[in-house]
Write a structure and sequence with these properties.
Helix content is 36%, strand content 21%. By secondary structure, the protein is an alpha/beta fold. Among the domains are: 9-19 and 38-194, 3-Layer(aba) Sandwich (Rossmann fold), CATH 3.40.50.980; 425-555, GMP Synthetase, Chain A, domain 3. The strands form seven sheets. It has a five-stranded mixed β-sheet. A four-stranded mixed β-sheet has the order 2-1-10-9, with helices on both faces. It is globular, with a radius of gyration of 24 Å. The termini are far apart.
């Protein structure tokens, strides 16, 4: 596959600036329900002005410049400006601890930090190395640093966009790190657009709309919310806040929508809170009202115009996928990693199989190792880990395949099913190995639990620790529901799941956690993946007593 300089994101943005200057590219919401639109002409004018300012700072060529903040129009503008000025961007999650922020800023050798929209600037600020220059983006908290609008107002727009080479380093994406310290994934300019150049089957155009809310510091959102949208000229909307998310979704009515399993399950729980599952199923079985019910539910979610709806970043229970399909929304799963810029596998409309993440995308090769590990060679492959050649060599085979660390299998049609993580396997005291992910998916599919972790190394049988669904936690908190009322349902859930498992896999009990798992308490990564080590550290000391109690359901 050949990628030319004209395929790169900077060149594509300049193309839309020239061909459709007055078409809106970015829509930024503000508190109070107001929005600001930025056409391609306005967007690129600001980008050119900031690039001119950066070029005048006399930084060494190809310096690292970091961005921290929630998704916003100016986050994307800052990224483009960094590239236009000849530098390398380093995105940081807006929820990082000060210690992790400091480690990334120092390890990446970043020379400047763009500060965007944040909920907790003091925490991030404590991690910024002394003397590091800052630039304050619109919507950012007061940092005392020079402001984007002031700098662009007094900078002439850069007339000539420098040509970046496809093989040149574009960005360093630090993995969120479910285990160990974050690693800096180096992506080239060509690697960032490899998916768009190789995969012409995706029918995307400037008439499409996309809601960007998953962190742009993550490869998945960077690939779609920035890359695909710039490459194809898609109109990008942003979410104002967590509280306004559903309103933002309804306002956008996206034709393209990507999310993670936890949110798809929250949507489902929200629908069931208004229409009990049995009643909804009954309504969907009546031909004369089925279409009306589907439209009403999807419109309420803001997804009635969605042509493509994807789930990624973690496995989603097949039962949840089937539930959305009964609503008329063909929920497709995708699979990828930061190390291949999320370009690996995806289901296609009309060819999806529940529980499978689809076939290899064009240009991607897949094989399963003797140990059952998924190995992938992708045109979006990273250049390696920043300043870690030995670590890079460990994950890339001699013939160029990425060791994903995921266990998987292929069906007769070449569709891939992820069965767990190689390192997540644990051994019981009986000497039998347990793969937790498939069991967790079965537990979550019933809707009683929002999060769960199957564990139990060194015990005769595994157990599950789970967090109740949000609506149930609210009822318990208000006193309208008591734990004793839920215990029989949780016992039935355990029994139903166990009936589908091998004897050595069957759960001894379900323990209900008192505290919800969140990014803030470090039970989840910034992309909402479980930190198993943190969960086992928190609940491990309680496990022996739980087993000794002999109960099937335990309330912490």
């Amino acid at each position: 596959m050949t990628i030319s300089a004209d395929d790169l994101l900077l060149a594509r943005a300049a193309r839309w600036e020239a061909s459709t200057p007055d078409k809106v590219f970015l829509t930024q919401p503000h508190s109070g329900g107001q929005t600001s639109d930025y056409t391609w002409r306005q967007t690129m004018d600001e980008v050119r002005r900031m690039a001119s300012h950066l070029a005048g700072l006399d930084l060494p060529r190809r310096s690292q410049i970091a961005i921290v903040g929630k998704n916003s129009a100016h986050w994307i503008m800052a990224d483009l400006a960094i590239w236009m000025a000849g530098h390398v961007s380093v995105p940081l999650y807006p929820t990082l601890s000060s210690d992790t922020a400091r480690k990334i800023l120092e390890h990446s050798e970043s020379r400047l930090l763009f500060v965007g929209k944040l909920d907790d600037w003091p925490t991030i600020r404590a991690g910024v190395p002394a003397g590091m220059p800052l630039i304050e983006l619109p919507l950012a908290p007061d940092t005392g640093a020079p402001r984007w609008r002031d700098l662009t107002a007094r900078s002439a727009p850069l007339a000539q966009i420098p040509q970046r080479d496809p093989g040149e380093l574009a960005t360093i994406i630090y993995t969120s790190g479910t285990t160990g310290a974050p690693k800096g994934v180096m992506l080239s300019f060509g690697g960032m657009v490899a998916a768009m150049v190789a995969d012409s089957a995706l029918d995307v155009s400037p008439q499409d709309r996309y809601l960007s809310y998953l962190p742009l510091a993550h490869s998945y959102e960077r690939y779609v919310g920035e890359g695909v949208c710039i490459f194809h000229g898609v109109h990008v909307y942003f979410a104002e806040s967590l509280e306004s998310f559903l309103q933002d979704l309804r306002r956008t009515r996206p034709t393209l929508f990507c999310s993670v399993p936890r949110l798809w399950m929250k949507f489902q729980a929200g629908v069931h809170a208004n229409v009990p599952p049995a009643k909804l199923q009954r309504l969907l079985s009546i031909p004369v009202v089925r279409s009306l019910v589907r439209r009403k539910v999807l419109k309420g979610l803001g997804l009635d115009r969605a042509r493509y709806a994807f789930s990624g970043a973690a496995p989603l229970a097949p039962e949840v996928i089937d539930w959305y399909r009964r609503l008329g929304l063909e929920l497709l799963e995708g699979y990828g990693m930061s190390e291949n810029h999320s370009y690996s596998h995806a289901s296609e409309p009309g060819d999806a199989r529940s529980g499978y993440v689809g076939r290899s995308r064009p240009g991607v090769e897949t094989r399963i190792s003797e140990q059952g590990e998924v190995l992938v060679k992708s045109p979006g492959m990273m250049m390696g880990y920043f300043k870690a050649p030995e670590m890079s060599a460990e994950v890339i085979t001699a013939d160029g395949f990425l060791r994903t660390g995921d266990r998987g299998e292929l069906d007769a049609e070449g569709r891939l099913r992820i069965t767990g993580r190689i390192k997540e396997l644990f051994k019981t005291s009986k000497g039998r190995y347990i793969a937790p992910a498939p069991i967790e998916n079965r537990l979550l599919s019933a809707g009683l639990l929002e999060q769960c972790c199957v564990t139990g190394a060194s015990f005769a049988q595994p157990h599950a620790v789970g967090v109740l669904a949000e609506n149930l936690r609210a009822l318990l908190g208000s006193g309208r529901l008591q734990p004793a009322q839920l215990t029989p349902q949780l016992m039935s859930l355990r029994d139903a799941v166990n009936r589908g498992l091998e004897s050595h896999e069957q759960l001894e009990f379900i323990a209900v956690a008192r505290e919800a798992w969140a990014i803030e308490n470090e039970f989840l990564t910034p992309t909402l993946k479980m930190r198993r080590a943190r969960i086992e550290e928190r609940y491990g000391p309680l496990a022996e007593g739980w087993y000794a109690s002999g109960q099937n359901v335990i309330w912490e």
